[in-house]
Design the sequence.
């Protein structure tokens, strides 16, 4: 494992950064919010990203993708994190498409992956429930056999970009009790299935999320993604990889928040000197810098470990999420504090980073959760 | 003591006889929080207007102020008894606001006779609502670097500039503001403390939205606003002295607010209650999450240690001792403990802490999110934590510049 | 409860401070260490303290004491903490004598308390065991009935000043299992009892401590302090009060460490200016100041609550110990760091505070332990 | 590549043929830690002397140094292969110390031909043990404010002053030191880098005891010590340039040491192992104390993130990229993570962490206490954490003075 970007990756990073600067300044994010955009992102921009090949990065070449790794996806996500681009990489690519790539039948893959890669179809993963907190195995939604098929009933929350999804991958229990690992099955459910209701949730970070209610939604046997009752492992693998992608985005966001704060420290004067000349602020800035550098190393290592199918990957994922969660909160808290009063106003952009940082920190498990997981995987 | 007890009986009787039935045990609205008065008053309940009037007639909206300005002429001890009786009878305050708490006492100390005659009775009667114009967009912690200027024009000043963080500026009638009246001298000198009627042409006010949503804060612009020289409180160019007296007052108010657990705290569950609800487990037994349990205990203990320190400070004052330096820690500690509390509440709420509005989040969860965002400002407003630490280092610890 | 010193208390504080300055500068502590003093403190000085009435503060007037409270004892202990005076207040007065005051028979009290108050007898409490950590109820030492009396066998560790004690108060189990609350009994055991062995332990803070081995030590029925099997509650009460006394001593130590550090910050120059002019150090100094002030309020409140027998006392004790433990470690770590290289040398005094702070922090339960106790007492 | 593989075979064969049997898999003593050579050498085992001699004869104590100074004339790639083979065969280093790691490379870069001829062969053969004289009692972090002075006296300098934190000064033969040779110019100018034989009259050395007990550190006094002008390395008054080159080297060495988990770490239990032993519970299951478990995980993760950052830095260098600024964080982070580790070990050990020596504490417990105290110095020695943060703020983040 080499913790360095290849020349191709460097080039990709630069392309994405240039694209983001041109098409997705922070003002775009603000406008989407202020206009109360119904889906919260731009489908047109998404198609452009797809045309540039980014959406298809983890999708096999046979299905129209680039068949590259999580490492490349992270290279794309970091600059997008810098500008808080709300396009649905996490939901459609890292959760939805990834579940099909890892566990989907040839038929499911052929039906969805080319359309996803082309930026034409959206997917979402509906796994979280009111009582699940961060536990992937705490699933109460039930799928009961109904002839050759199944009927699914339950309630899902915070389904990322669920409002635009053309199909949802729903985690349901086909056997066992609420917290059992065994008995979880993933189903591919078209958004227009009868009994499926999707309602938008409004989050503090303005990202698209939805409440999903399944009232006896009927699907046939071919809707199963992966093996019946064996969904926990697949779900964990998908969420682990998505977590690293989220961390890459967080890394971009915290780097941008810090860059803006540094610029402010240099420009803003108080008592006749730049506030960045105050040693207490300098030392705090240096501490932030350290945290970001450490987070960067973790993101790179975790992405490569996941790509390599390394045994250490789950621990590195938890390492990375714990660090990025803590670092993002530190960096953005300090960002607001160092901006002073203006940082508290809605019209200043720095607060967007604070909101996104907290939302990301509390997605896929917070730092406590991942430290506990690290310890558990370490046998203590 | 007997006299005081006689007064207690008298006060209780009067309150009971005069308070309209409808306002007893009135639960104050979060947004209004009492009678603020003013030219365009907002009443919690129609009877609150009556309540204000009867109290003002008796001077009991400002019980310790001199009767000649409409006050109640009570001693501090009597005023305390009156307050105790009011609370015992669960009656709301007849009047609240910056007139009573900030500019009134300042007028009493620094105002000319004419100024007192003009303003104090209107404050007592709740006819004029006041706001504060100190901070400026470019000044920040360096308050004395303010740029709003007043230029002499005959018997008037012409005022130009912008004030920010003016709480309830959009609902207020008069503003007390710091303006630069002399730029030839060094920073703190050359500042005047001036009273401005906000209906004067050239004054405009715009609410400030915060990251937590709407707020009481406003930005006030002054464009060639004409104000008589006579509206300066204290000496011309001597406003810093007046302002400092008021600022210390503001900071201890902020500490008091957090010391009491935050304005709206009373209606909120404690962290332990919130955690029990979210995390479950057997009531009375340790919470199932030992990490959150430890942090909740830490935060409760932070608050408790703070309250004990407040008490120590007050007890020392009561015992006639010189005020100790411990009061310098109140603002920074109380606000940061409150920030930790709201962040912890976010962590306890987990995925349910991410709501902004609408479906899928209950009121307590949404409140948790907003409170967290709002609390970020606690360590900035009223003197940043950095400024507080500088003050401690310099004035308490005597560390060199 | 008034959190303010009375005039008498103020006077006492000044008397102790003057006495400490004259008779117990830090150099005395260093000399006791360098000379490898066998008991680690001065019996002569102890008698002087007794003559001044300090040793007898919590002892009833009937037994030659002053019959004052923990609040007064704290007033004495704080200045002694400043100079790290190693005299056995904690062992003899706060643990040993306190157990007799709270639970001893009239005969036990009459036999021991006057001699303790006079500075002539030393007591120790032997409760801690190799497996007990901070749990007062985890007691494996057993007392078996033997005719009218008892035979005690077991092993005790870190018995404070055990080496000088004329009698030990030994917590033993007369029934129940290792962690049970019921079944613990306290026995007053003379140091010359057959089968009792006391060996000095050398601690990082140079305070006297001993390993105590009991091999079938025979005592008669009159040796029981308090009621048979009911010792847990008595032990808890004694240790709670002693904990507050320890905290008062810690408060003095941390205040002194901070005062010395502040003086160093003002005197020491680097890059041509006093290092105390560097803002990062200033802010850290201010944070330390805050912690000490909060700790002071807690110590005062806890002592008064214990004296008043307030229901809130146990929570206030834990509040105080948790804060003092954390604060003492912070203050002394910063003390060494701010002194730089010289602070690391044995010949500089600041390191003594670091060592004592850690030892005190890990006596009677560390901060984690007391936060957990606070939470438990709060019903969560 | 084929050539390198041929060298590997050759090196392995030579090592295997020449290494005395007794030193294979020799467990190095904690105090000595290898062959340090010098006039009064201390040997881990008698055969270590043979091992040093045969390696020095071949130039393989300093494999990459030029053959003319006694070195091995190997390329970096070959030296790496040699190192790999040595480790594979579990052979100890034939020679270690500041001669090889610090002054040798500096002599190669800055030394005159005569200086190289004089000193390098003796270093290669382990005949002279070197120590460093940089810090002074009054200088601290402000290294350039040093006061040890060298005054010209004919062809000699007369040196007076004191150096502290001189590791192994009591066991060393020569010292490389910074002395002020010109006080008329500003601080960094006017300093010279000079080589001093410690047997010269006027040199005295006293060990420094630390709060953790005895230490390798010494204080070296110089009283009218006569040193030839020719012993200055680099230009007279130009010693700062030489020193800076060496300092950077020292800091990365410190980071490497902590990066590898601290010198003696290999023999210690991990925190998790320690906690399992002290706290019990079922092996493989979560530790019974969730708070300690969380902090142990945090510390392991701190160390892991640090190692990954070290690797990132090295991988970038290998890939031919410019060294990134991330290396500036190594010293401060590694030392502070190590402090947190030792404090955590203290907390885990609980009441058993309070021992200094003797009865009632086992070796691991006493080691825990000493390691904690020793680690407090990590954030001071080799550039304090404060200085490291200043460097990051200024040179990496570009924040103004």
Sequence:
């Amino acid at each position: 494992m080499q913790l360095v970007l290849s020349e191709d990756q460097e080039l990709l990073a630069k392309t994405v950064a240039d694209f983001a600067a041109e098409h997705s300044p922070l003002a775009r994010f603000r406008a989407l919010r202020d206009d109360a955009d119904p889906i919260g992102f731009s489908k047109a921009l998404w198609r452009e990203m797809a045309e540039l090949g980014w959406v298809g990065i983890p999708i096999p070449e046979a299905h129209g993708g680039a068949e590259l790794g999580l490492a490349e996806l992270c290279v794309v996500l970091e600059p997008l994190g810098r500008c808080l681009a709300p396009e649905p990489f996490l939901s459609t690519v890292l959760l939805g498409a990834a579940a099909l790539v890892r566990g989907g039948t040839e038929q499911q893959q052929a039906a969805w992956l080319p359309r996803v890669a082309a930026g034409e179809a959206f997917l979402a993963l509906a796994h979280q429930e009111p009582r699940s907190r961060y536990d992937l195995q705490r699933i109460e939604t039930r799928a009961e056999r109904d002839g050759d098929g199944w009927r699914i009933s339950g309630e899902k929350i915070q389904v990322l970009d669920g409002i635009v999804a053309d199909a949802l991958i729903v985690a349901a229990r086909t056997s066992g009790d609420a917290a059992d690992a065994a008995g979880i099955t993933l189903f591919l459910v078209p958004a227009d299935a009868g009994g499926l209701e999707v309602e938008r949730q409004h989050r503090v970070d303005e990202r698209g999320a939805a409440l999903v209610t399944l009232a006896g939604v009927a699907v046939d046997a071919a809707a199963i993604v992966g093996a019946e009752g064996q969904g926990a492992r697949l779900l964990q693998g998908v969420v682990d990889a998505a977590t690293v992608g989220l961390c890459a985005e967080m890394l971009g966001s915290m780097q941008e928040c810090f860059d803006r704060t540094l610029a402010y420290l240099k420009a803003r004067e108080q008592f006749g000197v730049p506030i960045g000349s105050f040693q207490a602020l300098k030392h705090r800035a240096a501490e932030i810098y350290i945290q970001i550098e450490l987070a960067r190393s973790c993101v790179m290592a975790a992405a490569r470990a996941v790509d390599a199918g390394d045994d250490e990957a789950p621990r590195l994922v938890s390492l990375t999420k714990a660090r990025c969660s803590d670092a993002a909160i530190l960096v953005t808290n300090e960002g607001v504090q160092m901006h002073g009063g203006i940082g508290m106003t809605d019209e200043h952009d720095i607060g967007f980073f604070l909101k996104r940082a907290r939302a990301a920190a509390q997605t896929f498990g917070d730092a406590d959760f991942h430290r506990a997981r690290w310890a558990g995987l370490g046998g203590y | 003591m007997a006299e005081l007890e006689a007064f207690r009986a008298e006060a209780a009787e009067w309150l009971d006889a005069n308070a309209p039935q409808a306002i007893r045990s009135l639960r104050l609205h979060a947004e209004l929080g009492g009678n603020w008065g003013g030219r365009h008053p907002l009443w919690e309940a129609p009877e609150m207007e009556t309540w204000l009037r009867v109290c003002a007639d008796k001077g009991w909206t400002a019980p310790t102020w001199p009767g000649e300005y409409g006050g109640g002429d009570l001693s501090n001890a009597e005023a305390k008894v009156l307050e105790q009786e009011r609370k015992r009878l669960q009656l709301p305050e007849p009047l609240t606001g910056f007139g009573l708490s900030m500019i009134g006492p300042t007028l009493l100390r620094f105002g000319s006779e004419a100024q007192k005659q003009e303003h104090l009775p209107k404050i007592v009667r709740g006819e004029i609502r006041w706001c504060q114009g100190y901070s400026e967009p470019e000044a920040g912690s360096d308050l004395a670097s303010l740029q709003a200027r007043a230029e002499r024009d005959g018997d008037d000043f012409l005022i130009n500039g912008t004030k920010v963080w003016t709480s309830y500026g959009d609902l207020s009638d008069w503003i007390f503001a710091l303006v630069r009246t002399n730029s030839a001298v060094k920073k703190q000198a050359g500042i005047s403390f001036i009273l401005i009627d906000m209906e004067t042409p050239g004054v405009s006010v715009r609410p400030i939205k915060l990251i937590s949503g709407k707020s009481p804060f406003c930005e006030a612009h002054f464009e060639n606003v004409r104000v008589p020289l006579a509206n300066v409180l204290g000496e011309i160019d001597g406003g810093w002295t007046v302002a400092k007296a008021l600022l210390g007052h503001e900071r201890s108010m902020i500490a008091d607010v957090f010391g009491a657990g935050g304005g709206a705290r009373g209606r909120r569950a404690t962290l332990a209650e919130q955690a029990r609800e979210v995390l479950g487990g057997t009531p009375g037994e340790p919470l199932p999450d030992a990490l959150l349990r430890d942090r909740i205990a830490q935060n409760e203990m932070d608050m408790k240690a703070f309250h004990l320190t407040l008490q120590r400070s007050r007890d020392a004052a009561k015992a006639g001792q010189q005020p100790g330096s411990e009061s310098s820690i109140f603002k920074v500690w109380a606000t940061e403990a409150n920030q930790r509390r709201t962040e912890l509440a976010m962590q306890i709420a987990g995925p349910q802490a991410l709501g902004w509005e609408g479906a899928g989040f209950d009121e307590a969860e949404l409140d948790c999110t907003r409170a967290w965002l709002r609390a970020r400002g606690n360590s900035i407003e009223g003197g940043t934590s950095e400024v507080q630490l500088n003050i401690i280092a310099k004035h308490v610890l005597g560390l060199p510049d």
Notes: The beta strands of chain C are 123-126, 142-146, 149-160, 167-173, 184-190, 196-203, 208-219, 224-225, 269-270, 273-274. The first helix of chain C runs from residue 7 to 23. Residues 59 and 309 of chain C are 17 Å apart (CA to CA).
